[in-house]
Amino acid sequence: MSDWLIPLAITVATACTVLLAWRKLHSVSLWLAVGYPLKALHVYFTWGNVAHGCTLTRKRRRWRYTLDGLPVLGHASITLSRKRKIRRVDIDKPPRLGIIRPCRLGFRVNVKLMDGQTPDDYAARLSNLAHAWRVHSVRLISWKPGRVTLLATNGDPLATVATPVLSEGLLRVRVGLLETGAPWVLDFRTVPHWLNTGATQSGKSTLLNALITGLSAQPVALVGFDLKGGVELTSYGRRLSAIATERAECLGLLDDLICLVKTRMALCRTNKARNVWKLPEDLRPTPVVVLVDEVAELFLMAHKGEKDEIASTATALLRLAQLGRAFGVYLFVCGQRVGSDLGPGVTALRSQLSGRVCHRVNDPETATMTLGDSDPAALDAARQIPANMPGTAIVVGEDGRWYRARSVYVSEEVAEAAAQAHADLAPKWADLLTAADLLTVTDAELEALAREGEPT
What we know:
Elements: H1 2-25, H2 27-53, E1 58-66, H3 75-81, E2 85-93, E3 101-102, E4 106-112, H4 119-123, H5 126-133, E5 137-144, E6 147-153, E7 166-167, E8 172-178, E9 183-187, E10 193-197, H6 204-216, E11 221-226, E12 240-244, H7 247-270, E13 288-293, H8 307-323, E14 329-335, H9 344-352, E15 355-358, H10 364-371, H11 376-383, E16 392-396, E17 402-407, H12 412-421, H13 429-433, H14 443-452
Parallel strand pairs: 10-14, 10-15, 11-12, 11-13, 13-14
Antiparallel strand pairs: 1-2, 3-4, 4-6, 5-6, 7-8, 8-9, 8-17, 15-16, 16-17
Protein name: DNA segregation ATPase FtsK/SpoIIIE, S-DNA-T family
GO molecular function: ATP binding; DNA binding
Organism: Nonomuraea wenchangensis
């Protein structure tokens, strides 16, 4: 007996060693060659039971060869077996699965919707499917009439993010990774204004560092509002065209930005263009990205004497959000605590910031303020972000869907080095304000345009 046990043990040990080495050297090829076929068979063969357990089946009438009564043991079973006949019975019919297609992180599969089903029925069962298929997570990534596409991932792609920060075109920066394995790109041309919230040590500042690193190499003007006394953005001062660290300075800088918008509005009107991107390249002004850190400091009121100043600040910031996209001014607003208790100005500003990034927060109000107008599941996911994964956030971007994402870690030293290396690209603020010697629009025209909303 031992003659065959020893070779068997050696063979099993060798196979295990080879598989472990293969997984360490190139886990993707191991998944495609070994893991994927086994997983596909498991999904196909268990789909009927899984769909029934997730209440995704539908009753159908089918012809079956059945007994008249219940099967019993003993002599009675012989009697019943003679009474079998073909009849129509109710059976549970699972939705039809498409071809399971492998990808680097797992697999994706199309599922045909049955009568009366909607994509929401599957969105509510994603956790059940993940446990049934023995995978890390399942997401509904797209849908068409009568069909949904599910993506299953074997592991958490956000556990380690080593994606380098890259500039992927004007006003486009790759800052990290999405849970689908796709790169996380902040594209200001598509989503012009962003709200970035998060508690201390949540990764909010790391995302800002990554953004500055990517934008520093682009021909854009960076303007900073640092309400922490300048400790966050002053180190990047050589790349910033302007910076304000006190509320009074912020109000003055906001007035300058409004004047800049007026000048560009007049330039577009003179050339009969709806926005700066439809101007000839030789007339197109430099894009301006406004970085606001600790936005709550702009709205906090210590005494009633600050009420008028706060109202002016809120109005100017709201105007930039409403009109900025058409005239090349973009906002990236950050804050630890953003709630409706800060006043109606914050709520109005939030409605204009279509891009949302919610890191781990200390209070549910900030998460609700950031993600409350999106899928309720996004709020639940935001509350489950662990403290030991800084940089992880819930992102709502250009497609309107929410994703878990994680920004790559960029230290202050790396971001400062990038800012200094490209300091020559920072335009003078005075040059931006006097770049075009044209008639500006009046305040009344600006108010009318702000009431109408942002032009397209």
